[in-house]
């Protein structure tokens, strides 16, 4: 029963990734003039990564490197997006510092562990926290000007809501899984929470693609 | 605490935190949005109020101008015609002069009636309206004025044009009434991103700060603010007064 639930949930999860990619391509015309046009490639990359990671694991018995590379690319892309969208010079500077900090932590992390077999935990947590900060900066900025009036039609707003909810929920899971677990079975609950978070995040992306209006 | 409990606890905390975030974000964004909407509504109302006041003032000014013109120009011509006609009683060969004078009067009358036709007034743009004003000054010999327009004309929203016109009209009438100036130069410059209007007279000017804060001046400043323009008036004793108005094209939608 658990096994069935597990695999069904897995397929539902993948289908949400798929729907996100599908809507992103369908409504590409609405946002192709912004830097978010690369987001569709990121989503396709996510989908391929998720699908293939499983097979790579069966084949090589490790796939941590795939996620390590993927996460680094993902974080760097979003730093770039927020750097691009935020207008305030001070905030832009902070984002540049964030990128430097993130890269430094990543490099140290890569040196200290075997990045092929283990996930870059410190790099991930730093990246996720910094992205949350970028999102907050972005919100502070849109709250202070007239962009807030058309917030529902703002694609980046929805993307950042999705990311914010996901990272705020996922960081404690990631930490508790690395520090407390010895027995994976116990953490099935947390794994399901993680999957629910991914679904919520993808829903936000999908809403964003559907509701966004060309500016 | 065993691992299962930790897992449960973490799950509960995560769900709680996420719900809090969603509620907070929702409240903050909705509040902020409402506040902005209210602000916009207020600005719009202030703009409409200024606009209607401006229109009333322009109408009053127009009536004053008509009365002036009837009295100073056409009235004079008619008086002259009357005198000439009386003189022509004795020597009828002078009747031609009378005809001439009456003809002039008719031309002036036509010009005036064309000018004050409300339909014509409504369809005027800023430049045409300013041009008429300057022409009138020269015709009635109130003051020697020049008017120069440079750059590519940009269509400014009619309502804003009306307010800009009124600001300048107020400046002109101050010049004519108080400055004792003999020259008035107006320059309208359409730049790539903004409109710059400068007007300068060579009258007595004023130096005291009290004059700067007169009601007329306050009105002008206030109106400039309502349309988002920058207004600067400088004056030096015995040197004259200068006005500089800068209006950036359509910065926000009102």
Spatial gap, N to C terminus of chain B: 62 Å
Helix content of chain B: 55-70%
Please, what is the CATH homologous superfamily of the largest domain in chain B? Answer: Histidine kinase-like ATPase, C-terminal domain
**What's the alpha carbon Rg of chain A, rounded to whole Å?**
18 Å
* Overall average residue pLDDT of chain A: 89
Question: What topology, given as strand order, has the largest sheet of chain B?
Answer: 1-2-3-5-4
Give a count of the beta strands of chain A, DSSP E runs of length 2 or more: 0
Poorly predicted regions of chain A: none
Assembly type: heterodimer
Main attributes of the structure:
heterodimer, B: 254 residues, alpha+beta, Heat Shock Protein 90, 7 helices, 5 strands
How is this fold's topology laid out?
The complex is a heterodimer of chains A (215) and B (254).
Chain A lengths: L1 H25 L1 H4 L7 H22 L3 H22 L3 H24 L8 H23 L11 H26 L7 H24 L4
Helix pairs in contact in A: 1-3, 1-8, 3-4, 4-5, 4-6, 5-6, 6-7, 7-8
Chain B lengths: L2 H86 L6 H21 L2 H5 L3 H14 L4 E7 L7 H22 L3 E8 L3 E8 L7 H4 L2 H12 L2 E8 L3 E9 L6
Parallel strand pairs in B: 1-2
Antiparallel strand pairs in B: 2-3, 3-5, 4-5
Helix pairs in contact in B: 1-2, 1-5, 4-5, 5-7
Describe this structure in words.
- The complex is a heterodimer of chains A (215) and B (254).
- Chain A has 215 residues and is an all-alpha fold.
- Chain A has one domain (2-211).
- Helices cover 79% and strands 0% of the residues of chain A.
- The radius of gyration of chain A is 18 Å and the shape is globular.
- Chain B has two domains: 46-123, no CATH class; 143-254, Histidine kinase-like ATPase, C-terminal domain (Heat Shock Protein 90).
- Chain B contains seven helices and five strands.
- Chain B has a five-stranded mixed β-sheet, covered by helices on one side.
- In chain B, a hairpin with a 3-residue loop joins β2 and β3.
